[in-house]
Structure formats: structure tokens, C-alpha cells
Specification:
Elements: E1 2-7, E2 13-19, E3 22-25, H1 26-29, H2 38-43, H3 45-56, E4 65-66, E5 71-73, E6 82-85, H4 89-98, E7 113-115, E8 121-122, E9 127-128, E10 137-138, E11 141-147, E12 151-152, E13 163-170, E14 173-174, H5 175-182, E15 196-204, E16 212-213, E17 216-217, E18 220-225, E19 228-234, H6 242-249, E20 254-255, E21 260-262, H7 271-274, E22 287-292, E23 296-302
């Protein structure tokens, strides 16, 4: 299933799921039996999915909206937390080469992540403002998993049970700001926390089963700027699986339903890797579209 958060024709923030090319308001159609927030749905999804299955068998056209009647926003506008990993070896190699360094041996010892701003989530077709002090704005082509069960010290081999679903993630990056702050061996912080895009929806993990390759997925990933594809990769090339990322993230701390775990950028999945000689840094007016097999397309305009 594909779950969304959206503004209805009256401008109210609602939550629901896609039924073909229409959007179902889950709280409305269930007469209050289902919550109006995806976080609450995820917390009790095993119980609520039975309710949804029952409702789906008798939905009428009048109980849903046309996709053109509503406006999608980030499926999780304010997740409990957001950790973003750097799990693609090619990306790490390209990034360190650009800065004149080599990959730190510690990268091969454990999955590495940073915390970002869980209150700065953007959805598809929402505008992203370039920070005032930024002149090197970049996109990052990523995938994310959404935690579906509370857990602590979760082993990688059982982590699949803790995943509710997946979504596309764009980890917007102010490269000039990021470069300065990381010179003091801390961060990234202000180079990242102004916006993160997720969406257009959360896809439940069962929908990706046809693409599974053991603990990874065969998913084509592309990024286009103003309609021209610049980045192309595949999620199967990831070095660390989501299971390994979850094991690392949950070490001695508790993960909660709705927590977002980002994969990090696929190889050649940003302008920094491609080089500004391939494409200039992003500017106001540019439209960036990320597409991943099975997860749809996430589009944002820079302002």
C-alpha cells in the first residue's frame, strides 16, 4: 500500500492511502476508527491494516478524492527522528576524492550516520528555499526506510521485522556551508538542516518484495534537473543494508515508530560527485525530480 499525508480541498491536513489514482481519507472513511496521522497508524499498523483491508473491499468512488483535488505534503511532516547514513561506497569514494582525501578505514568498520532536522520535511511539489548564505546548493538521491516497531539493540538479521515501509529521500545540501563547518570535525549541521524532502508516499515493504535481492533491492534510481537526467544508480549497489543500518542506529538506544533511516547518496547521486563542470550548482527556478523504481517520483522547485 501507499500511504500519504495531504491537504484536502478545504485546506485541512489529513492522512490516508492511494487507491488507484484516488486518495482515501482514512479517518473520514473509517468514521474515526482509523487515526488522522500516519505516525499513529504506524504505531498500531498490525491492528489498523486489518481495518484498512476491510474498508478497501467496499470503497466507493464518492469516498475518495481525485489526486488533482488534494495537495500532497511530506508523508511524515514531523517524524520522531531522522538519521541519515552514508552507505554507498561509490559515493564515499567520489566525495573523498573530490576533497583530495581517501576513504577512512573506519567507514568499513561500521555504518556511519548523522542526525538532521526532523522538523524541516518537505513533500513532493513543495518549494525548497536556497539558504541565504548558500551559493552551492545540491541534491542527494537517496532512499529511506520508516521504522514500524519500537526496538533497541536490534540485530541486522531480524531488522526487517522493524521496517514499516520505504520512501524517496532528497537530502538537500548547502555544500559551501557544509565544507566550512566540517573542517572543525563536526557536522554536517547548517549545511543540511534547512530542508529534507521525502515522498511522494510511504510504500509498505511488501510492495518491494518483487525487487528483493537477499537483504537489498534491485531498484533503479535517477535524479533529473529541469527534465534532464543527471544521476543514475541502483539501490542494489549499497554497501550496508538497511538491516545493518538499523542495528547500528539502535545500538544502546530505542528506535520508535516513524523514525526515518536514510540510506545516504547512491553513487554519482549528486552534483558534488558529478562535478560542477558536468552541471552547475542548483539555482532558484530549477526543478529537481528524484525517481526510484516502486517508490514513485519526488519533485521540488528551488526558490
Amino acid at each position: 500500500m501507499k500511504f500519504v499525508t495531504f491537504y484536502n480541498p478545504e485546506g485541512q491536513l489529513r492522512a490516508g492511502w492511494l487507491s488507484g489514482d484516488r486518495v482515501v481519507d482514512m479517518n473520514l472513511v473509517s468514521k474515526g476508527e482509523l487515526p488522522n496521522h500516519l505516525i499513529e497508524l504506524i504505531k498500531n499498523h498490525e491492528e489498523y491494516m486489518d481495518v484498512i483491508s476491510r474498508l478497501n473491499t467496499k470503497l466507493t468512488h464518492l469516498e475518495s478524492y481525485s489526486i488533482n483535488e488534494i495537495r500532497l505534503t511530506a508523508p511524515l511532516p514531523k517524524p520522531p527522528s531522522f538519521r541519515d547514513f552514508v552507505a554507498f561506497e561509490t559515493h564515499v569514494k567520489n566525495a573523498t576524492k573530490r576533497s583530495g582525501d581517501t576513504v577512512a578505514p573506519e567507514w568499513y568498520e561500521m555504518p556511519i550516520f548523522y542526525f538532521s532536522n526532523a522538523n524541516a520535511m518537505k513533500g513532493t511539489n513543495e518549494e525548497v528555499k536556497r539558504p541565504a548564505k548558500c551559493s552551492r546548493l545540491d541534491y542527494e538521491l537517496e532512499m529511506a526506510c520508516i521504522i514500524g516497531r519500537e526496538g533497541r539493540n536490534i540485530r541486522a538479521d531480524v531488522a526487517e521485522k522493524y521496517i514499516f515501509g520505504f520512501t524517496i529521500l532528497n537530502d538537500w545540501s548547502a555544500r559551501d556551508i557544509q565544507l566550512k563547518e566540517m573542517k572543525v570535525l563536526l557536522g554536517p549541521a547548517k549545511g543540511k538542516d534547512f530542508a529534507t524532502s521525502i515522498g511522494p508516499y510511504i510504500v509498505t515493504k511488501d510492495e518491494l518484495d518483487p525487487y528483493r535481492l537477499e537483504d537489498k533491492y534491485d531498484l533503479e534510481m535517477t535524479a533529473a534537473v529541469n527534465g534532464k537526467i543527471l544521476s543514475r544508480g541502483n539501490f542494489k549497489d549499497i554497501y550496508y543494508s538497511f538491516g545493518q543500518m538499523i542495528e547500528r542506529a539502535s545500538e544502546e538506544v530505542t528506535l520508535y515508530p516513524g523514525d526515518i533511516i536514510g540510506s545516504g547518496t547512491v553513487g554519482f547521486g549528486c552534483i558534488m560527485e558529478l562535478g560542477p563542470e558536468t552541471h552547475r550548482w542548483l539555482e532558484p527556478g530549477d526543478e529537481v525530480e528524484l525517481t526510484i523504481t516502486g517508490l514513485g517520483s519526488l519533485k521540488n522547485k528551488i526558490v
